[in-house]
Amino acid sequence: MAAASGGPPVRKPGSAVAPTPSLDAGQSPMVRAAWGYFVEDMSQAEIAERLGVSRASVHNYLRQARDEGLVRISLDPAVLARSHAAAALAARYGLEGVYLVPDVAEAPLESVARAAAMWLDDLVAPDATLGVAWGETIHRVAELLPRRSYPDMTVVQLIGSMALPFRFTAESCTALIADRFGAACANLHAPAVLSSTDLVTALSREPLIAQHLTRFASCDTALFAIGLATAESHIVQSGVAGLEELAFYRARDAAAVIAGRFIGQDGRTIPGPLDGRIIGIELERLRAMPRRIAVSAGSERVPALGAALRGGFATHLIADAASATRLLDL
After folding, report:
1. CATH code that applies to domain 77-329
2. This prediction's pTM
3. At residue 93, what are phi and psi to the nearest 5 degrees?
């Protein structure tokens, strides 16, 4: 069963959420287009003729209806959790849920992020305290999230801020997810890494920072991706880890990075020079959260994903089917 595509919403009779049982001409063109397409089973050409607009406009109305949450298209995650590979991964690593995206034409990151955005509603409670890490995958999930209104939810940044040439900083990921969920946002107003442990100790005593660090204990859900321990990885390109520090961890069998912390192939945290210089959640604290959702896309991340799963960092996994097959062969 294929994941949702990047084009106009796939028509599924009954999948539209309509605000009223009837429609009048006073409704906005977006609402009228969505009603015609999803409820009346009209084609885009027929809707364009009815509204007196172009088919391109109808396409845009349907996309807007999906983005604003008027129309909710969902694929039951239970269907994708029933595969042999999903069951095998769950049994091997003690996972509560494994959701595998079928191989499709689009890039794995895009399809996995799209699936994660679709399924987070089932995995994150409306009143959750959600801890969010950072990275390209998490940021793309955030961009694809449909808008919701969860005023009782709080989204918490798990690692400090970064001066990056990328869009997917920790603060950006956290703020965007909070905005999409209509939730409270708790950004960590401190650098991710400092030059000395003394600076970290001093800054962590500042009331604003100290208050945020105590929020980690209240997080009941974590959302994170698994980074690579390579010179081309975001942990190095962001400046959080230098090449000398990377060499230190690689010499000690580093296989992956989670929230700025290195772990070995056996899933154990590797003590090292960054430990006292990072302002962010410690991995033991993350692992103590009741629900921990890992998102992984691409076969190049399979060794890192395996390390994270062996370390017990995830309770739920969203990944592509090809990665799952390779992971089972390790």
Report:
1. 3.40.50.1360
2. 0.77
3. -110, 10
